[in-house]
Description:
- The protein has two domains: 4-125, Glutathione S-transferase Yfyf (Class Pi), Chain A, domain 2 (Up-down Bundle); 137-291, Rossmann fold (3-Layer(aba) Sandwich).
- Helix content is 47%, strand content 11%.
- The radius of gyration is 19 Å and the shape is globular.
- The strands form two sheets. Strands 2-1-3-4 form a four-stranded parallel beta sheet.
- Helix 4 crosses helix 6, helix 5 packs across helix 6 (99-109) and helix 7 crosses helix 9.
- It has 13 helices and eight strands.
Amino acid sequence: MVIKKYALFLGCLIPLRIPSVEIAARKVFRKLGAELVDMPGYSCCPEPVTSRLVDRDMALVVAARNLSIAEWMGLDLLVLCNGCYETLVEAQETLMDEPDEMKRVNSILFKVGRRYTGKVRVRHFLEVLYEDFGVDAVRKLVSRPMRGVSAAIHYGCHLFRPSPGQEDIWAKPRMMEELADASGAEMRKYGVERLCCGFPSMQADEEFALKERLLPKLRKARDAGANCLLAVCPACLVQFETGQTLLRRYGEKFEFPCMHLMELLALAMGVPAAELSLDFHRSPVSRFVGSLGGV
């Protein structure tokens, strides 16, 4: 049997804040007969919102260096973060569309022994699961359906960034819904699924980010009967988890467990919760998962 391999781009927040997502991803892909290969010397993507506004040239070079590592490995680049996906895809498109930029960037990369030609495929993990394996293959591996989970889905703004050659902005959000459904969990509609979590605006106006972005989502999800929030972006997860703590300053108290889809799929596929290091979450994920019984 040929094992499918992918270059794993972890970004910054997963290894530093929520390593349980990496653990879950490796276990899920291993069960699917695939291997996630470490990228030696990768760096921040860089961050998609402010880095290119501050210094576009720097952002392109840093992104191109990361792309060059996957290209050197000869593997598709698998990304577990919406923001990293957008950064790397847009950098690749810019460099392929602007030959002079590609030449300039490569002249800088040459100084650190790297070169980028645009041959690598940047892929969101949702696309890989959906296109390379299929929802049915994921569902067949579910040995412990997550029937006690009523999840409010948060797509994340960058998930609506279409893949190259695709115009349907809902393609990846639909993939997320179908893959989440394959876990056996129930999805609860709450009306503001597309509202930003507030992570980008935290850098400029914390009160606005918490009260006008995060709070409406938490209230609506709670009122819809959801018992957890499901995301595919580590930055969004950090915002939901730390934001709940910060909202106490404004008299709002929430203890809403927030999980990454990879964690939910790992649990559904029979991975013991004890193997996922869920205690790194700042929301009560461990307690919530423990309440499901037999996990």
